[in-house]
Amino acid sequence: MRAKTGRYSVYIRPTTYVLDLVVINLFSICMLGSEFASIYFSVFISLSWVIIALNIDFYEVYRFTKVVAILNKLARQLFLFTLVCFAFAGIYSKEVPAKEVLTYTLSSGCIVATVKLLIYYSLRRYRAIYGGNFRNVVLVGQPKNVQALADFFNDNPDYGYDLIRVFNLESDKKQQIDECLSFVQSNKIDEIYCALVDLSPTQVETFIDFADNNLKILKFLPDERNILGNNTKLDYYGYIPIISLRDIPLDDPINRTAKRIFDILFSIVIIIGFLSWLTPLLALIIKLESKGPVFFKQRRNGLDYKEFNCFKFRSMTLNEIADIEQVTKNDPRITRIGKFLRKSSIDELPQFFNVLLGDMSVVGPRPHMVSHTEMYARKIDKFMVRHFIKPGITGLAQTNGFRGEVENEKDIIYRVKYDIFYLENWSLLLDIKIIVMTVVNAVRGDEKAY
């Protein structure tokens, strides 16, 4: 399971966004006066600030980011923000002295810079003194290839990495690699760093498969060979280049917040617009046809492999194997109203309550019942990667013909491939496209909907 060591720091970036917007708006009111600092100016500078920040990665500051890189971001952000403020002043009907605008942007920029650097240094001091916000790591490779990174981790506790062990690959590589994988599994290790020059392509694949199937973060110290895919990400710890195996867009707090807001708004529309009147009607029909509750809940695995109760309208008669055996075509357990609910996917609508509760997203990998998750995790390579993000009511795999019953190994393999593509290439536009495709498929009818 993916460890949560230090993960609370992801809340810092959204908080910084809010603080910066408060600063630039408050300073505009105090320094420019009511004649210029109108509601239009407030909206304009807020949008401009966010757009500039997104384009220059102003808030992409990590524990290993150098101060000079932060100062460079600050300078670019302030310069571009000053330009847009002058542009607004240039088209404004009333004259505003250029000196006042420049004083405003410089003053607010200084406060923003102070807050940004204060947070950065406070976190580093917190890690160094109190030992908090740490991530446990191991190194794999020959000493000559990993010693520099080992020294970096040991000499810079303020970066928040606790080097637990180094696995020396000078002799008996296979034994050391096996021992490393066993050690990572049995201890709370967050990240694995491997020297690529010491690993064969097969051994690299072994580490990639292990990390994917056990929800561990894997990074590489690169060499001259270019053997990684296009989804890798290059960072620097000091002056040491580090390659991250997978860049997941939803790891970014801004993307995650945008998706969460979309999920909440979309769910509210469905719940108020459909479930508010549909639920009493279906409840009556379901109750009249068979004994049992209106809703069916089942334990499933979600984000970081955590279990949650997944809600559905009950479409089967009460049976003891509902949590063990998947529904098949012409399954005798399905009721008459259940056939309609499943064919039209209406039985899935209560999962919008799961979305509001935060257990699911509108779009994401479909969650499996716990017993099936454990089975597929043992049999299907990279199956566990799906749990890096929240499960969804619908997903890319489901809109491409891989929904419902898993009839053979091909079904689940392709489902995993689509899910991994989704988590590596997420965007709100992709979510909207998948939702539209889901509605179209529901209207047309899906041969695997039973």
Automatic annotation (TrEMBL):
- Entry GO terms, CC: membrane
Q: How does it sit in the membrane?
A: Multi-pass membrane protein
Give UniProt keywords alphabetically.
Membrane, Transferase, Transmembrane, Transmembrane helix
Q: Does the keyword Transmembrane helix apply?
A: yes
State one molecular function term (GO): phosphotransferase activity, for other substituted phosphate groups
Entry's transmembrane regions: 12-34, 40-62, 74-92, 104-123, 264-286
InterPro entries reported in the protein's UniProt record: Bact_transf, EPS_sugar_tfrase, Undecaprenyl-P_gluc_Ptfrase
Q: Which Pfam families match?
A: Bac_transf, CoA_binding_3
Principal location class: membrane
Keyword Amino-acid biosynthesis in annotation = no
Q: Where in the cell is it found?
A: Membrane
Q: Which residues form the Bacterial sugar transferase domain?
A: 259-442
Q: Which family does it belong to?
A: Belongs to the bacterial sugar transferase family.
What is the name of the protein in this document?
Undecaprenyl-phosphate glucose phosphotransferase
Give the source species: Flavobacterium aurantiibacter
Taxonomy, top ranks, is: Bacteria, Pseudomonadati, Bacteroidota, Flavobacteriia, Flavobacteriales
